[in-house]
Amino acid sequence: MKKLFIHNAFFRVCSAPVFGVLVYLLVLMVNNNLNELTKIFSNQELYVCIGLSFLSLESLRLSIVLMNRVLKNLSFRNRAIIQSLFGLVFSLVTVSAGITIYFQWVVGFSVSIAELQIFLVIFGFTALLYNVLYFSNEYLFRENTIHLNRENRLREKVEADFATFKNEINPDLLYESLETILQTLYHDIQGTEEQIDLLAGVYRYQLMNRDKELVKLSDELQALENLASLLNYKHPQQIKLSSKLNLTDEAIQPLPLLN
């Protein structure tokens, strides 16, 4: 399970006391009893609100964990609706049970309907807000994952295209040809220009026809002659090319001249 904020131990420990204090203040405001604020750190009801907040938040987290396993095949929208409703009901039932147990076992009498309604409204709103935050976080996580995967695919495609292009241009041939051109430049300007023309012709032909399935036989032989002439500058007259083929317009598959 991906580590979202609701599963963070620090969030789970710190959120209950903070939210419990807020719930206690809301209850005092609803009951128009703000003078109780002077006893906020010694009032037993404050600790009860913190305990109820912990039960509410943990029940919501548990409902999300369970629903993620049960509803994993549903669409994001349907899962959000069902999971929010289930979390709301599960949280309210847990809070109602906690309040009932506190009043009957600690206070000694049953909780009033009015007090129960106040707690249920507050914690019901909390449940909805909790699910909204969770699904907002998950939606952003899903969108970021989609964008990252798309970027990774584009990066892999660029790297693959670059590797293919690198193999097609034969960097060793290019480096050796440029080295020969630099050596020839000092004593044979005309030979240097001819090498540059041959090198450009070989690469231009290979790059223009790399995606073609068939090329003319005459064009292919001409490209081979250019390559042989280029290599003979580095290895003088060691490469000879002869052909007895009839130079017609017959089409063949292009040879990987630069590999």
Compute the number of strand runs.
2
One letter per element, helices H and strands E, the order comes to HHHHHHEHE
Task: Quote the distance from N terminus to C terminus.
Answer: 48 Å
Low-confidence spans: 36-42
**Strand order within the widest beta sheet:** 1-2
Radius of gyration: 39 Å
Number of helices: 7
Q: Mean of residue pLDDT?
A: 77
Structural class: mainly alpha
Helix fraction by DSSP (H/I, runs of at least 4):
over 70%
Major sheet details: 2 strands, antiparallel
**General shape:** rod-shaped
Task: Characterise the protein shown here.
The longest helix has 57 residues, at 113-169. Helix 1 packs across helix 2 (44-70). The protein has 259 residues and is mainly alpha-helical. The radius of gyration is 39 Å and the shape is rod-shaped. Strands 1-2 form a two-stranded antiparallel ribbon. Residues 36-42 have low confidence and may be disordered. The chain is built from 7 helices and 2 strands. The protein has helices at 9-30, 44-70, 76-107, 113-169, 171-185, 189-208, 217-234, and strands at residues 215-216, 251-252. Helices cover 74% and strands 2% of the residues. It folds into 2 domains: 5-164, no CATH class; 171-252, no CATH class. It starts with 8 loop residues before the first helix and ends in a 7-residue tail after the last strand.
